[in-house]
Amino acid sequence: MNVSSVSRRVPVQARSEQRLRTILEAARLVFSEVGYASATMTEIARRVGVSEATIFTYFASKRDLCVRVLGNWYDEIIAQVEGELPLIDGTRNRFAYLVRTHLFRLTVDGTGLCALILSEGREKDDKFGDVVVELQRRYTAPMMSVLAQGVASGDVRDDMPLGLLRSAVYGPMEHVLWDAVRKEKAVDIEATAVSLSNLLWQGLVPPDAQQAALQQLRNDIVGAVKRFEATAAS
Fold first, then answer.
1. Is residue 22 part of a domain?
2. Which of 58, 120, 152, 207 has the most beta carbons within 10 angstroms of its beta carbon?
3. What is the Cα 29 distance to its own chain's centre?
4. pLDDT value at residue 92
């Protein structure tokens, strides 16, 4: 193979990769705006400025394109978590970080993709639903790891299966996200993340630790009352 043939091929490959990125960006916007059912390859092609046939040279179907869009989005979030999570110390702090990141990315990135995942992931009779379930398994793996490490260190209760603990964590967050999607409510991410992580954490800590924390709280309150009474009496 001579040098001239290589030099002719590189720009073609580069243009192809750029076009693929453009198609994925346009598809992400369309799926976010109108959902999977109403999205069309024609509209995506129009936004890219190419023919519909060109889109089909990259993706065999709308399903394949949507799966790629969602997969890329999950990859972005997973890459962020994998880069930041090791820098955080403590099971509770890691847990709070994952709760905040989940709420932040699924609302700030746009409720359109969030709605797409929440709805399409429920289609158990469709292969697309199976794909979304697998993406969600990868996505929740860091949380599962944090919970498992918490069990090993004694920070998280060991009397329940990890799968049940995961459901107990993501279930309430899903309700928050559905409210944001269906009611188009503005969600205060910071306040919601703090309140929700504090609430959920109480169900994760070992029962003995809960009792100890409550006893300490009682002791603190009794001590504060006594100090107040002593000050008032003097």
1. yes
2. 120
3. 18
4. 95
Instruction: Note whether residue 217 is domain-resident.
Output: no
Q: pTM of the prediction?
A: 0.76
Confidence of residue 123 (pLDDT cuts 50, 70, 90): low
Q: How far apart are the C-alpha atoms of 35 and 33, rounded to whole Å? A: 6
Structural domains in the chain (count): 2
Residue 146 and residue 110 share a domain: yes
Task: Clarify whether residues 96 and 169 are in a common domain.
Answer: yes
**Do 7 and 99 fall within a single domain?**
no
Range of the domain at 19: 1-59
> What CATH number did the domain enclosing 38 receive?
1.10.10.60
pLDDT tens digit string along 200-219? 999 898 877 555 566 566 77
Query: For residue 4, how many other CB atoms are within 10 A of its CB?
Result: 8
Q: CA 77 to CA 139: how far, in whole Å?
A: 8
Q: 35 and 94: one domain?
A: no
Q: Note whether 54 and 18 are within 8 A (CB).
A: no
